[in-house]
Amino acid sequence: MSDNSLPHNHGEKNIETQLRKMLAKKQDFNSLADTFKLLDDSSRLRIFWTLCHCEECVLNIASLLEMTSPAVSHHLKLLKSAGLIVSRRDGKEVYYKVPDTELCRLLHKSVEKLMSISCPE
User: Fold this and answer.
1) 90 phi and psi, to 5 degrees?
2) pLDDT: is 10 or 77 the higher one?
3) CA 5 from centroid of its chain's CA atoms
4) Where are the beta strands (DSSP E) in the chain?
5) What is the C-alpha radius of gyration for the chain, rounded to an integer number of angstroms?
6) What three-state secondary structure class fits 50?
């Protein structure tokens, strides 16, 4: 396709080629859309934000968020399967936290920026 194949040429040079190249990354767009879908639940978003700041067990997360442990466990399972949280076992206790990845750092900053909240000190 040539650079002038869009129905309306608004004078941008090479923009079509650049846009088509980025838009061809459909799997990347799908993956990000799936992450946003996962965080469209306020409970999961609250759990994610909490675990950005500390490592906690299910009982403490449930207490902080005033939720039942089974409900928290359900949300943790979904977040973990998407790679937005990780866990470690210490005896009988399982602790959860957000991994130090670029995606998680960006999501954390986005939540705080959009909600005008900040990390606890």
Assistant:
1) -130, 95
2) 77
3) 36
4) 56-57, 86-90, 93-97
5) 20
6) helix
The secondary structure element, H or E, covering residue 100 is none
pLDDT of 15 above 70: yes
Q: Record the pTM.
A: 0.83
DSSP 97: E
Structure tokens given for 4: 């002038």
Residue with the two structure tokens 């009988």: 92
Going by pLDDT thresholds of 50, 70 and 90, the confidence category of residue 4 is low
Which residues fall within 8 angstroms of residue 118, CB to CB, at 6 or more apart? 112
The tokens for 11 are 């004078």
96, 65 contact by CB (below 8 A): no
- Tokens representing 78 are 């979904």
Task: Enumerate residues 6+ apart whose C-beta is below 8 A from 117.
Answer: 111
Q: Which amino acid is at 57?
A: C
* Residue 116 or residue 44, greater confidence: 44
**At 10, phi and psi to the nearest 5?**
-100, 15
Judged against a pLDDT cut of 90, whether residue 117 lies above it is answered with: no
Residue written as tokens 């009982």?
A: 59
Strand partners, 93: 90
